[in-house]
Structures are given as structure tokens and as C-alpha cells.
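Quick one: structure for this chain?
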Amino acid sequence: MAGPLLLRSLLSASSRKSLSSHLVRLPRLSRGFLAGPASAAAAATTELNSCLEPSRLRNVAVIAHVDHGKTTLMDRLLRQCGADIPHERAMDSISLERERGITIASKVTSISWKENELNMVDTPGHADFGGEVERVVGMVEGAVLVVDAGEGPLAQTKFVLAKALNYGLRPILLLNKVDRPAVSEERCNEVESLVFDLFANLGATEEQLDFPVLYASAKEGWAYSTFTKDPPAGAKNMSQLLDAIVRHVPPPKGNLDGPFQMLVSMMEKDFYLGRILTGRVSSGLVRVGDRIHGLRSKEFGIEKIEEGKVVKLMKKKGTNMVLIDCAGAGDIISMAGLASPSIGHTVSNTEVLTALPTIVLDPPTISMTFGVNDSPLAGRDGIHLTGGKIGDRLMAEAETNLAINVLPGLSDSFEVQGRGELQLGILIENMRRERFELSISPPKVMYKTENGQKLEPIEEVTIEVNDEHVGLVMEALSHRRAEVADMGPVAGNVGRTRLSLTCPSRGLVGYRSVFSSDTRGTGFMHRAFLTYEKYRGSLGNVRKGVLVSMGYGTITAYALMSLEARGSLFVTPGMETYDGMIVGEHSRDTDLDVNPVRSKELNNIRAAGKDENVKLSPPRLEQCFFSFHVKSGLFFLSIPKTYW
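Got it. Here's what it folds into:
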């Protein structure tokens, strides 16, 4: 009997040890199971209190025009609240964001301030990524509108502000970059009046029109309630902005006693956890291990997608993702455990059979066709070559980016619809870096027909150039069917003129590179979708021809040296070419056959001089994405590995 008794005592000891370890990790949950009914109720109350009360939460989006200091402001707010910032522009986690200096995707983080939890959403400022703004403004109750005090509200300021006001958000106006020498108190008052007029024109309510105004220098790391260029030493921080958020932004409305419901607003994939769904909890509580299911609205009713349980609950704190045990109504969280739901779907308790209202996005305005690379050089550099892999990659992109639509086409081709050429250019660049080879059609504008009338997308364009370039820019845009809405000098900048125009989207395709050349790199152009209007007629002579290779082999520097005078090149020495490949853009409106593989003739005659030192300009890769609309039917093939 000694053997069985000894074994039983060892099992008891190990069980007690295991149970004690569980009590250390999850004390409240274990006490609820081991104690009587009164203790269990007390444990449940303690767990309820451990989740943040909605009154202590503030959900805020930071919205702004491109380059008005939004991401820098987020860095200063994180530092103010004690977060560890590894580098500048900490919220820009995508490599292309850091390279281009723009925000491409929305991100959520949280900071603690005076016993309150502030969930901050950093949004893109470019109109091409407006879908990122539209899908996250439903998660917040307030917005910090960042406006450059020198430039004032621009086209994309109007775009992001209109989205915020439509959702009833309470705005806070932050005039940034007031430390610049050209910014005065009179200029700030003028910008404040312009913003107020913009609010009124966009249909803001009286409550939204009563917005607080703060003056800041995000670069220096301070915000102040009155105009100053040098605040007191004790006020050179973001405390007043954080206090204004707590004071003016209402807490989220949510019922902790109701059933759990959450609308998925963001999604990412993890190698170990699978899909990570992010959204704001509309009602109830959610804990790790709870049974949940995904729902979506269909024409015939509510469809159940998948049922499972919560494997992980996470929340972004500063720049780190931390695990949490539970979350309540009003909080913005991430969860893992379901493999099928995506953005716009509802995640709820299994007893809930109603879906939350889905996200409504603006329609796409431009489309391109992606297909298999069938050139003679196919398969030399990339590793993803087939139509199936290209289609899977595009479908995965459409699942995480609602502003992109993917429609299957003929013979392994896919029509990709988006908001603008920058958005599609980012997608192409990402696919190239992932070693895809593909062919791309010229971009096409998406028209609409209403009451038998053809409508086309019209964009609002804001241009700032030197006075000597105004005539050249206006002449170029007149051929593109642009109409001038306003024109005047730029406040605080002598010799600069600002133009406000409306122009068809088809006229702006490929114009950015032309604009940079016309203004010698000193001009700024910002554009945002405005509306659909009546078709304005055919464009003038705005398209240029292309340089087409008529040789097969390796491109030489000797040949390119004589071709540089003919136009802009897209290739470099050492690349492979074939007959019919587009190697550049012609400086005129006709196509030109060239021989980029020509080499210098070698003979036995001694020359008096030395060989020429070949100096070539770098290829214009940014332009080549959208320079192939010059002749319909031409396709652009993936750039070789030397450009990765």
C-alpha cells in the first residue's frame, strides 16, 4: 500500500502546487470558482471594476492635411505621457511611411493622463487614403484638427474634416507651427476665421462650431491656450492639449451590463495568432475565453460567419502591445480567436443575433488592371509569377483595405479600383518588394451615368507656386480642363501665389511629375476628391510619347548617354531589354524607336583624346508608374530586382 499512497500524495501535492500557481496569475477568477456565492459575486464586481469605466475613457482621432505636423504631434503626446519612443515618427511603422514621410494606414494607441485613458487614432492626411479615415472615425467621439498656422486649411483639411463632422465628432482646433517667424497673432486669427467658415460650409452643428483653439509647436513639444511663440518654462509641454481633450471630448456611451458587441474597424494578420481584429466595444464586457461569433449583414438578413472563443485580448499602450484580461464598453481593443470576420463585421456574444451598422465608404474613382507578366523577361527576378498568387495577394489587400475593390477579369487578370494613383502606386511598390512580377494597365477613370448624363470625378486642387511659374501652371491645367476657383498671394510668403482649382481626375493622372518640372521643384500641389460632375470634354494635347526599345540584350551606358536628350529614362545600364519594351518617356507627343543596347565600336586605331566619362541621370522610377497612360493599350511590366 505504500506505493499507491505515495503516488496519491505526490499527485495531491502537484495539484495543490498547480492550483496555487493559477491563483497567483488569476486571483479574482479563481476566488470566484472556489468560494461561495457571495464571494463569487464580489469577485465579479472586482473584475467589473478592473475594466475601465466609460467615464474615464476618451477616444480621439488626430486629423490633418498632409505635412501639417500630425505624426510629430503624436510623438510628443506619447513622450508627455511617459511612453518610450524608439525613434522619431514612432507611429509610422510601415517602411514606406518612413521612406516617403507620409502616413499610409491608421493606427491606434492609448496613453494615460490624470486617471484617464486616452485612445488616440493617428490617421492619414492624403485623400487617396481617405478609406483609412472613414473606417476609424466611427470609433471615436472627438478629433484634434491640426492646421498649419502659416498655410491655413487646404483641400485635404476639408476632406478629413467633412468626415469627422458627418460622424458628429467634437473637434479641437490646434494651430501648429506658430513658432515660425512668418506666423503672427493676426495670421492665427485669420486662419481661425477660415477654419470657422469651413466648419459652417460643411454643415457643423452649433456644438461643433463652439470648438476650443490651442496654439502649438509640435516640433518643440508644447501647446498653449493663448497665442505665444515662447510659453513659460513650466508650460513647454502638451499638458494643456491633454487637459483640453479630457475636458471637451465626451466619454463614450456604452452599457457595461449589456451583451458584448464590437464592430471590426481594423484588421491585421499574425503568424502565430492568426487574424487580429481591432475595434471599439459598443456594449458589454469581453474576457479571455468567452464564446463569441462573427456576424455580417446581408440582403436577406444577418449571416453568422464563424463561432469561436477569445484566445487573446490586447491593447496598444504607447508603442507596445500589452495583454489584458477583460475590456468594457467604449474601449478600443484588439482580439484574436476568429479566423473569418474582417473589417465591417460584428463580433459579439453567441446569444446576440443582430449586427452593428457597417462602415460606409466613398466609391473608388480610378482603376487599373493587374495581370501576369508575359514579357520575354518573365520569371528572371520575381518568385510570385502566376495569376493565382497575384489574385490571392490582391484579395488579401482588399480584405484589409476597404477603399480598394478587386474584380476578377479575363485570363488571370484583375481589375483593381482605388481612390487615386498614389494609393495604387503604394500597392504596386509593396508587391514589387514582395517579389511579385506582374503587368499593369494604364489607369482609367471610373465614370457614372445618371439620368442619361455622363458624369466624371472632379477633384479640388490647391497649388502654391512662385509667381514666375503661375502662367506655366495655369496653361498646363487649362489643357486638362481645370477651372480656377480662387487665386491670391500666400500670407507671409512674398513672391508666392496660391491657386484653388477644380479639375477632372483624368486630367491629373500623370501631372505631378510635369508639375515638379514646370516649377523646378519649388511648387506644392494637394488634391482631394470633390464630387461627380458633368463630363467636361476631351483633354487637350497633354500626353507625351514613349521611347520604345528595338534591340534585345543588355542596356549600355554608351547608348543611354545619347538617349538622355530625347526624354526621361526608366532604365539603367546593365538591365535587360527586348524589342518593344518601353524604356522612357519621349519629350514630344510621338513615339520614338531607340536602340538602348548599342555599344561603342572597337577598332585598332589610336585616338588622340580619352574616352568620354559617361554620367547619367538617375531613372525616374516614381514617374514610370503612371507614365504609361500615354498610349492606350501599353502595359508596364514589373521593375527588375536591381530596383528593389
